[in-house]
């Protein structure tokens, strides 16, 4: 173990939170995970790994307090009655097993949930529409409703204590909590003692804190999660308005303040839109108003940054969701002086997409996330090799890099050959697009690991053909040769490609633009049928380069899949601010003597004046080497034991999928495949 730099000692001081003490200053704040109460074993194992990795506090996701706020179909937690205790206790035990504190975020979502499962009428301070898209409305709460919410919250807090939790939250953030809805004049138009003056609007939050303290405060700390700014100016909570007044009013009442900006897209901004520490200027004032410990977030992955925040008194705890997902062992690595081993979050929000699509959490950097229980994958440990077999991996993109790293960690003799002048594959070009530099961390982490793995040999500028692969005489061959963007327009809309003639405008692909090929000076049309981030990035780059750019898509908005990464609004806004013309609901018809496009509803056609078109439709696997080697295998002369394609070479997908594919190959290598599904299932017992 290398010695840790004493400047980081401050991060390992214990901190008292009311009646409990955290062993250090690393605090995993509440985060969704797409497992919750529906895949409770998976959720508990994932939280346990965070505690093992050194997070002194490990929190749940949002936990519904009763059927009047059911959150469905989102997969979160529930603590409605005694029957929910066993699954919570499982998580608490997993966290306690490593000496960490378990925190629970109790929540009544008010106008943020439609109660689609329970069919109860949603509750609000005043009659109004829901925040979620729904034709349902919420009804104004009367005094008995307020009493009922307080009673339910109190009952859940008592159950939480019984389940073993050390910290119980009162939630007033993310536009997801009834207590926050009461605080805000835009939602609260009451004329009784719960509306009007600030003191009245704060009443429910104050009562919930007091109730919780009174119910469980003897042994549990009571935390408040509070939105300090909604970035809505005077129309919302803000640091130049009521936020400091509210904190001053309640300053010493809770045992801990967990503060952030809202809503969720603002709190969890991607690296494309916000730097590490982007919340500091909003949360810095909080410690001047309270003597209680304060936790804040900001995608912190730099230990120097963390230590300086504590040293200058800006925060008491380094809060993290994403950095703890990308590297559950981040605290341990700092503690042990292994900073170079930290797997830094790249700020892509693929983790968020799990929650948004109701699937277990996944992470670009950490392929074991969400697989801790069902596959038994641990982020730091992997079974050692069971044979002397050698492996040649062709292609040094994300899939090949992670495959080599994980096989190397198992102890196998691995050779990684890359055709290009540097490792990274798709990430090399993509990380040069506007705001995408953090993606390079995917490459850096793996290259840094190779320094400690003498059994992994790497070669650049090695464009291998079939003869070279065969001559290498490895027992196992992995092709991670990636994919390229299509030039024929084939994609979701045009299943067989577009009619393209010789008189078409100049056609480019994202690969061309990333390789710095320049369209002519005339207008450029970027056509997006992929619907994730690439077309927006290409349009943004071209606009920066001085082109007149039109962004056209058959979708009803720019980059619709990025709603799952909380970026859609920010992307569309950025393109508009860059002066890019946005045309939605139109599909290309042909590139034939001009650029013909049609309305997706009426079929009415029009022509664009674009002189160049960038087609962002789909990608095609680079599989020529695979086909050649398959032919050799077919004639029975193949000298290898196995030949496998992984990542984009098998089917193009996200960087997260490629890393997962590389990791999976390494985990399953030399092991017997289980019968049936390759993971344990959590079954509903009837
Ligand atoms: P993935 O996302 O699946 O990792 P990428 O496209 O990012 O795929 O990376 C594939 C890498 O494989 C690229 O860097 C490419 O240069 C390399 N490559 C493709 N064919 C060969 C080959 N025949 N020999 C060596 N490297 C190759
Ligand atoms: Fe960070 Fe992306 Fe992993 Fe989320 S998915 S933790 S944003 S690297």
Please outline what is shown here.
The chain has 686 residues and is an alpha/beta fold. It folds into 3 domains: 6-356, Aldolase class I (TIM Barrel); 390-482 and 622-668, Rossmann fold; 487-620, 3-Layer(bba) Sandwich (FAD/NAD(P)-binding domain). Adenosine-5'-diphosphate is lined by residues 394-400, 417-420, 425-426, 462-464, 480-483, 622, 625, 647-649, 658.
Query: Please, how many helices?
Result: 21
Shape label: globular
Classified by CATH, the class of the largest domain is: Alpha Beta
Mean pLDDT: 96
CATH homology superfamily name of the largest domain: Aldolase class I
Q: Quote the CATH topology of the largest domain.
A: TIM Barrel
How many domains? The number is 3
What does the model show?
- The chain is α/β, with parallel strands linked by helices.
- The protein has three domains: 6-356, Alpha-Beta Barrel (TIM Barrel); 390-482 and 622-668, Rossmann fold (3-Layer(aba) Sandwich); 487-620, FAD/NAD(P)-binding domain (3-Layer(bba) Sandwich), CATH 3.50.50.60.
- Helices cover 29% and strands 18% of the residues.
- It contains 21 helices and 29 strands.
- The strands form seven sheets. An eight-stranded parallel barrel has the order 3-4-6-10-11-12-13-14, surrounded by five helices.
- Helix 3 runs parallel beside helix 5 (198-216).
- The longest helix is centred in the first third of the chain and has 21 residues, at 143-163.
- The chain is globular and about 80 Å long.
- The two termini are 50 Å apart.
- 53% of the residues are buried.
- The structure holds adenosine-5'-diphosphate and iron/sulfur cluster.
- Adenosine-5'-diphosphate binds next to helix 13.
